[in-house]
Design brief:
The complex is a heterodimer of chains A (492) and B (139). Chain A has 492 residues and is mostly helical. Chain A contains 20 helices and two strands. Chain B is mainly α and 139 residues long. Chain B has one domain. Chain B contains five helices and no strands. The chains are: A mainly alpha (492), B mainly alpha (139). Chains A and B meet through helix 1 of A and helix 4 of B.
Chain lengths: 492, 139
């Protein structure tokens, strides 16, 4: 009986837990509740994934109002994949958060911290689950508003300006998305995504539909941190509490990529977005320029967290590059990189969180000789870094490989050059950290010890996943391939 | 503004009216224009007006920080709780048919409770935001 309600439980468990968290006065209880709910959400997403793995689509009518009038929750291979990424990362990041947040966030604000976390989780899961365009906007606002709070809770006072900057950009993005949805509603009179797709196919091309697509692409591009709309991201990631950076870097942009896929390939038809409208070349150019420029900017960063934040923008570029190829192989690569990037950036930011916990700083100069003082932390960082570059036997290699294959398939050789050049730039900026940690002697009076087990465990969990999914690609590639087939297939 | 007689007297007369009107908007929401959000905002506006004239501390006598926090959580819990009530009743999430024997009665009860939840949370959050800004002391 519970089984049929899983799509809605996926979202409302964390929604109910959020106000409960607000009532809990002790930070430990709030953390425990958030953690238990995250684990439950992960279990639900696993069950959902198993059900849709066979190609089935689960539809759930909220309040018993049938689609397209009511709000429909719709789980298929694409969003089941996203759900599992978001929930798994939330579990790992929360394991890490207990110790890390206790140090970084003021005692009386920790309960609120976990409330905001749960709301953010609700929003991200809601965006993924819903099949209703307006409901998607509501969840987008829930996740955005709570993430502004989470970022603003960072130790550094600059976290507040970073959060405000993100708030301004995020609100513009959300407004654009809302205008896009409004225009679509204007021409079709429906908000259900499947119904929208069916009606748009009949209506054909019009100025209003074109404008809607433009607004949606730019709006989602802002949330996605697609070059050149990424300027909010480096500050937000740098000054947010460590656990929040992990959570945001591994989930928020991924969910935005999902929104882009849903709209470009399902609500609009691919023949419209990439045929009648020149979006393919447009996205490819932005992605390529983004990869090269932000990777280069990464090299010159003094703060390692900021360096990785710029690298995240470049990685988003790879995903968009895969999308712009408009082929089954390209989408597979994009979705695969989405999954793998969550693993590698998760690992890297977790390792940095360990460093921040012990040193209180993640400046390049501060980590000199840390390879000797914190061997496990830096080894995990190294695994994540290798994966980021795309060394064989790591997850990063698999997705870059598929991406290159997809580009070759289309015969877009310049893109292959861009992908390889991006990896080479990644070697340079990662090497600066590795050199500092392993080849420089630690300062004489530095007396740091290895990070506590409660921080190392989640870090190594994700580091291990990087290696595991670099060797056994059955799940990740299989899932990505199936999701890509569904998106391309629906575009006929 | 406490020294201004006109403001003081008018506020005292008008605040009860605002509060009653907010309750009207709240509970008449299923038949006419209105609903939880609007009612919550109007309700909070009554308190904010009172606080503007008589000082922020006045709010503290009715709604302490702890009360506001509980109210914020309570409203959302009421909303989501109705959803779970439908689940237990064997229907879809937020399907109000499950709340009573008669589906029509259930629908009424459901929207009534859900809107009440919205109203409580919105009013509490509005007042919290006001207190947070007005209660600030210059650093």
């Amino acid at each position: 009986m519970i089984r049929e309600h899983l799509p809605v439980l996926q979202v409302v468990l964390s929604l109910v837990a959020a106000p409960l968290c607000l009532l809990l006065t002790r930070a430990v209880w709030a953390w425990l509740l958030a953690f238990i709910v995250s684990v439950a959400a992960l279990l639900i997403s696993i069950v959902l994934l198993r059900e849709v793995y066979t190609g089935e689509v689960i539809s759930y009518a909220i309040g018993g109002w049938a689609a397209p009038w009511g709000i429909e929750y719709r789980v298929d291979a694409v969003n089941a994949f996203i759900l599992i990424i978001v929930t798994a990362i939330s579990v790992v990041a929360l394991m890490f958060a207990k110790t890390s947040v206790a140090q970084e966030v003021a005692g009386d604000k920790q309960g609120l911290f976990y409330t905001a976390w749960l709301l953010c989780l609700t929003g991200l899961l809601g965006i993924a689950v819903t099949g209703d365009a307006f409901n998607l906007f509501v969840f987008l606002e829930i996740s955005s508003l709570s993430s502004y709070v989470l970022i603003g809770l960072g130790q550094d006072r600059r976290a507040l300006t970073a959060s405000f900057q993100y708030l301004v950009m995020g609100t513009i993005g959300a407004t654009f998305i809302l205008i896009g949805i409004g225009l679509l509603y204007m021409v079709t009179g429906t908000l259900n995504m499947m119904d929208l797709a069916a009606r748009l196919a009949v209506l054909g091309d019009s100025r209003t539909v074109q404008t809607a697509l433009a607004f949606l692409t730019v709006g989602i591009g802002l949330k996605l941190a697609l070059f050149p709309l990424h300027l909010w991201l480096p500050n937000a990631y740098t000054y947010a509490p460590s656990a929040v950076t992990v959570f945001m870097a591994a989930t928020a942009t991924k969910v935005a990529v999902y929104m882009l896929l849903r709209f470009l390939f399902q609500v609009f038809d691919a023949s419209f977005t990439f045929g009648a409208m020149p979006l393919g070349g447009f996205l490819a150019v932005l992605a390529a320029v983004g990869i090269l420029s932000t990777s280069t900017v990464s090299i010159f960063q003094d703060n390692v967290k900021r360096m990785l934040a710029y690298s995240s923008v470049a990685q988003v570029g790879y995903m968009v590059l895969g999308i712009s190829l408009v082929s089954s192989a390209g989408l597979t690569a994009a979705l695969l990189h989405l999954f793998n990037h969550a693993l590698m950036k998760g690992t890297l930011f977790l390792a940095l969180g360990c460093v921040a916990y012990r040193l209180g700083s993640v400046r390049l100069g501060a980590i000199a000789g840390l390879g000797q003082r914190m061997p496990w932390t830096m080894a995990a960082f190294l695994v994540g870094a290798l994966s980021l570059i795309g060394i064989p036997l790591t997850a990063g290699f698999v997705s870059k490989w598929y991406l290159i294959l997809a580009a070759v398939e289309r015969g877009w050789w310049p893109l292959v050059v861009v992908i390889v050049a991006g990896s080479l730039l990644a070697i340079i900026y990662v090497w600066r950290v590795v050199e500092m940690a392993y080849l420089r002697p630690p300062p004489e009076k530095l007396s740091v010890t290895e990070a506590p087990l409660s921080l190392l465990l989640p870090t190594w969990l994700l580091a291990g996943a990087n290696v595991y999914f670099g060797i056994d690609t059955q799940f990740s590639v299989g899932m990505a391939r199936q999701a890509a087939a569904l998106l391309i297939g629906s575009s006929g | 503004m406490k020294d201004n007689v006109v403001l003081r007297v008018v506020t005292k007369i008008i605040v009860p009216v605002i509060l009653v009107f907010s309750l009207y908007v709240q509970f008449h929401g299923d038949y006419g224009p209105g609903g939880g959000f609007q009612a919550g905002v109007i309700f909070a506006a009554g308190f904010i007006l009172y606080a503007l004239v008589f000082g922020v501390e006045a709010i503290d006598r009715v709604f302490s920080a702890a009360t506001l926090r509980i109210m914020t959580a309570l409203g959302l819990l009421l909303f989501a709780g109705v959803g779970f009530w439908s689940l237990i009743g064997g229907e879809r999430y937020l399907d109000y048919d499950a709340l009573a024997q008669e589906p029509l009665v259930g629908q009424h009860l459901g929207i009534f409770l859900v809107e009440l939840g919205v109203g409580i949370t919105v009013a509490a959050v509005m007042i919290t935001v006001f207190v947070a800004f007005a209660g600030r002391t210059p650093d």
